[in-house]
Design a protein that fits this description.
By secondary structure, this protein is α/β, with parallel strands linked by helices. About 20% of the residues lie in helices and about 20% in strands. α3 links the parallel β8 and β9.
């Protein structure tokens, strides 16, 4: 609902990413499945936006091979000729591929009192791809401050907003102790 409300207010919903939790919190429910995922929304205020896909590439699972898409039938109904630039390309020659939109990241405990702490490994690609070095990250639901920790680690500036004063204290302690 938040993503749709933001869209109504001029934001662009660029992508929804699924966080698949390998070790979700158990639920004693009998009328539905245990929830083991959350959504991460990639939003921007303009059509053109910063996204460094190279910084979050992941290991490929297959061997790379040379491909010429124009010779593979992709342009069959394309009336203006070749749909792709000509020539063969080797996608994944570096052994890497574009990051997928389902991220398998386990929950990690946080010794502080906050129960829904994001793991650093979930936030790392968001920060790396979504903000240039020395840029500014806004986290409107700061919680325990994981985004702030990751932002600092990757040389990004950070603004966090949190309504719960207990969580603000936890976030300040975590971020200051990591400095």
């Amino acid at each position: 609902m938040a993503a749709f409300a933001l869209r109504e207010n001029g934001w662009y919903l660029r992508q929804d990413i699924i966080w698949a939790k390998g070790n979700p919190m158990p639920e004693s429910v009998k009328d539905r499945c245990t929830k083991s995922h959350e959504y991460i929304f990639l939003l921007s205020k303009s059509r053109k936006y910063y996204f460094d896909y190279m910084s979050i590439k992941e290991p490929a699972v297959t061997q790379p091979k040379a491909r010429d898409k124009n010779k593979e039938g992709y342009q069959a109904d394309y009336p203006k000729g070749d749909r792709f630039s000509s020539g063969e390309r080797v996608y994944g020659a570096d052994g890497m591929r574009n990051k997928r939109d389902v991220w398998n990241v386990n929950i990690k405990p946080c010794k502080e009192a906050h129960f829904a702490t994001f793991p650093d490994t979930l936030i790392d690609p968001c920060v790396l791809a979504g903000c240039p070095e020395c840029g500014v990250i806004l986290d409107p639901f700061m919680g325990s401050g994981t985004t702030g920790l990751v932002a600092r680690r990757h040389n990004r500036n950070y603004v966090g907003i949190e309504l719960n004063p207990d969580y603000v204290q936890i976030a300040e302690n975590r971020i200051n102790s990591a400095s």
